[in-house]
Amino acid sequence: MSGHNRWTKIKHKKEAQGAAKGKLFTKLIKEITVAARLGGGDPDGNARLRAAVTAARDSNMPSDNITRAIKKGTGELEGVAYEEAIYEGYGPGGVMMMVQCLTDNRNRTAGEVRHIFTRGGGNMGEAGSVGWMFERRGMVLVKPGPTEDAVMEVALDAGALDVLPQPEGIEVRTEPNDLHRVVQALEEKKFALSEMKITFLPKETVRVEQLDAAQKVLKLVDLLEDNDDVQQVYGNFEVPDALMDQLAGS
Known about the structure:
The chain is an alpha+beta fold. It has 9 helices and 10 strands.
């Protein structure tokens, strides 16, 4: 698993159990609100909303909070109008990063993200400077149980792009607009799903194997994700599992 993805999961798991739960919930509520505004309030017909609601439930967010966020997105309740902004840049060692934000003030957010890149030893680039390295994809993870061949047959028939074995299960990748259809096909076959989302995947990765270099890169990820407007940080770097375990326990 790429370093930034695993590091983010470790951090979010700690947040969901600790004092930072409020900040995590705020980010999840923003995503639910925007997803409902863009694609409607029915998770069964809106893959992005369904992924956001699943993430919220996995973080033990109360159902009332989820319902209110959906209603704010559909206009049934008054709420702040957030818009998506994506910023691109370089981290320490030249690793490439995409920063996905939801904001009510693009100028403020752009300035803050630029400052964080500089503070973390990187620099923010122009639009398109690193975006060519990433592909926007739907991703769903099938829990362990079925064989890779069984998942592949159903997923590819439903329009998936690729099926990859992972330590946590079998990962299915799709075009963003095909995620919902593939999820439905997998569920019809009673496959248990543990994760679904729209993400940016790097076309190639850089392996970061030195402790000091990994610390600097992941510190920048932490600084970016601590910003209230930043929803996700994507990078093209890989950190070996042994080194990641060392960093997570430090």
